[in-house]
Protein: Calcium-transporting ATPase
Organism: Brassica napus
Amino acid sequence: MTSPFKPSPGRRRGGDLESGRIENADSDSDTFSIPAKNASVERLQQWRKAALVLNASRRFRYTLDLKKEQEAQEMRKKIRTHAHALLAANRFIDMGRDQGGGKPIASATPAGDFGIGPEQLVLMSKDHNIASLLQYGGAQGLADLLKTNTEKGISGDDEDLLNRKNIYGSNTYPRKKGKGFLRFLWDACHDLTLIILMVAAVASLALGIKTEGIKEGWYDGGSIAFAVILVIVVTAVSDYKQSLQFQNLNDEKRNIHLEVIRGGRRVEVSIYDLVVGDVIPLNIGNQVPADGVLIAGHSLALDESSMTGESKIVNKDANKDPFLMSGCKVADGNGVMLVTGVGVNTEWGLLMASISEDNDEETPLQVRLNGVATFIGSIGLFVAACVLVILLVRYFTGHTEDVGGGPQFVKGKTKIGHVVDDVIKVVTVAVTIVVVAVPEGLPLAVTLTLAYSMRKMMADKALVRRLSACETMGSATTICSDKTGTLTLNQMTVVESYAGGKKTDSQQLPATITSLCVEGIAQNTTGSIYVPEGGGDLEFSGSPTEKAILGWGVKLGMNFETARSQSSILHAFPFSSEKKRGGVAVKTADGEVRIHWKGASEIVLACCRSYIDEDGNVAPMTEEKEQYFKNGIEEMAGRTLRCVALAFRTYEPEKVPTGEELSNWVLPEDDLILLAIVGIKDPCRPGVRDSVQLCQNAGVKVRMVTGDNVQTARAIALECGILTSDADASEPNLIEGKSFRALTDAGRDKISERISVMGRSSPNDKLLLVQSLRRRGHVVAVTGDGTNDAPALHEADIGLAMGIAGTEVAKESSDIIILDDNFASVVKVVRWGRSVYANIQKFIQFQLTVNVAALIINVVAAISSGDVPLTAVQLLWVNLIMDTLGALALATEPPTDHLMGRPPVGRKEPLITNIMWRNLLIQAIYQVSVLLVLNFRGISILGLQHEVPAHATRVKNTIIFNAFVLCQAFNEFNARKPDEKNIFKGVIKNRLFMGIIVITLVLQVIIVEFLGKFASTTKLNWKQWLICVAIGVISWPLALVGKFIPVPKTPLSSKLSVLKFWGKKKSSGEGSL
């Protein structure tokens, strides 16, 4: 079996002893190693088969259920096949109807206050029946039946919403209930070792009652049974609480918020609050939240792969193919839809109700800890088997002594009942050693710390979509961040403008420019303006850039509704992050056709052949004038302003395509006339400079990747501290997207690590940068908000989508959603990622110390005297402290600033570092030495020679047990700070840790002083208690002294790997001269 402590590939940044960095890497084919993303089923099955498991239902509780996942895939296929069959049948019926063979469609049947019933809506939507839709009057007629205004939506008052939900249903679907507490209790009972102990307890109980009577004979068996039940209950409670936390987080992930039009204004609502009749604007990256029909759209195309399984993009048309399916994504264009079906009345609702959504997944750290558990468990099983054999051999050969000093077994004289009882006790001890030695709770400690971290990260404005991202974020070596909304506030305002051939303000513009700008702003936008009926401030909706330009239009005197009514849109080219511009063709009341463009200033300017001068006349764009505008753009960009240009051109009405050709019309973008260039201010977020500096100090390089002008990006980067001086602002530190794009893969790899800022980048440039950095060995985190960012988010080790500005497509491709779009929250995620890894290491150090000490003490005692000082009940109590309470105490430590003072931890670095080996060996050697001395010389050292031998032995064993437990309690403080000298720093703030320590100590006192019959202990006097406490307290100064002992930089595991590799070569003859 491969060692679980091997180092593996990953970015190495030497010098951090805690992370045990080394230069040589391990193979990625290690059994207990899976990729953080997109692991194959074969890899997932491989480690399961290799893991030593004594309680599969518990060990695999928080891993992906491969069988259930396969069933879900089959269910998806069935529903998709059903959708295909319906569409095919519908096409066949349409063909028959066209030939005159169709049967008449039933007219709309009223339901309640509405003109059409839910059954007819569902049938029409599922069958995609255009004939039915046309009979109801198309989208407009259907809206009238549903009492909806296609422009203003439904009224949205509580009574109307309730009425619609009662008749048409709500946008929810029945979910399969999660496992209840009793199921967790049942799963915990399946532990093979605990089952053996329960059988032994029952047998011991029966023999004890038979030989000693019910009054005294039930203690041995009863105490073991009680201890086992306690372990089962505590385990089930812990697992159940974690399950509830994950359920709450899953509910949060599913709760999508979107804009709907109600009462004439755009309002944000939860997807669960949608009702039939709602009017929903759709833009690129949105998810279609319910079944519906298209009211109007421009170049609208959907990705229906989530429903049909086919990855092709489907174009939607309000006349020919208006039906929209819930769960699909908007791939291009924009539109407005009318909701006709919600919840289980949609194909998506049926799909979600049919499959289980446990969202379990195994993380790389979880799998590696399964490897550690297998490694330790194998040793534990071997040791337990040795103890069993030794104790049985000593017993049946007469070398095991009873309390009187004579042989416990004499052939032919000892009663069979006593022999069976003694053998049961021996087996019980051996099995209990297995319980302590096989750390089933080790992989679950990852789940515990992840559940805790995910809950706390929600408070820090980060929603984790994939568990593995928590771990991976701690290994991040670089963050490729957007500018707008992440490093800046995303609160945009137009503060400067160039129009009429000069720098100007809105009051000085000629009437010609004003009217054309107003027309372009009102029509070439995905935003809107709501005017409250009772007066008050205007309400702007749309992206921050759209809202800023709409606000500038209002300053020009624009009345949004009036401006839109004076012309009609013929065709639209939605804004593209590839082309950096968007356009619209409009037809005025007098029949004139104009094409308006809006986009990146220098790109639009390059398409302009003329401009409107200060007199309102069209003037040619001379080289001098073009340079004047370019200088103006650079001057504004140098002051961190985002520059956007507005331009237009006229077009001959007779050349405008008609019919199907219109939907495929490529709007002309040459010979444009420049209207205006506006400078939009988007201030940096407060504290972003400190956050960037914190990342740089932690060994995480922050890179800005933005679609903005290079000069704007440079100015913001200097303000944020990404660039430290003007001297840094040169290639390749500062590079334009097209320059990077033009390089070969080798050329990109050569400069990618030096890039700090990339301006005018396309989403594909971001993807190329991510791929290059990953090839260079970096662990890359990427922020993104647009649909086109999805490939980069998916490709990155950690994809961070923006919760406010992000599209649903971006969020679906991400691993973590930053709910407040703030870079400071990204830094908090890094802290939590490092905390996950650090907390697991603390728990491993603590648990291995207990493992080593308990095993050595019992084995040495068994070999030398034929008896063990720690009984089955005592070991079960130690197991409870170690597995559940220890994990709760150490796996829930909050992150500290110390974590950000060292380089990133490689994802596949050895879990047990040299510092941890040093700490645990010092503590284990100390505990073993002291307790073995007490075991063999305790009676004389403690002054118990004059006591009755049986009582003296019981006192000695009680002190050994008590001192051992107190050592673990005090050692938990040491485990909190493996590489810091002040182990008490922040301990009072961690109430859970202090609470568990107090509970452990109180229960220990109760066990020793009041439960002697159960735990095989006896009451201790105050001097004996002081001795036990002193033995435990010595672990503190011992740990402090140990931290002055230097450790080698090369991990112990790598030396073992080298020896193992050399041995293989030697045996194969390769190492010979």
Notes: The longest strand covers residues 291-303. The chain has a mean pLDDT of 83.
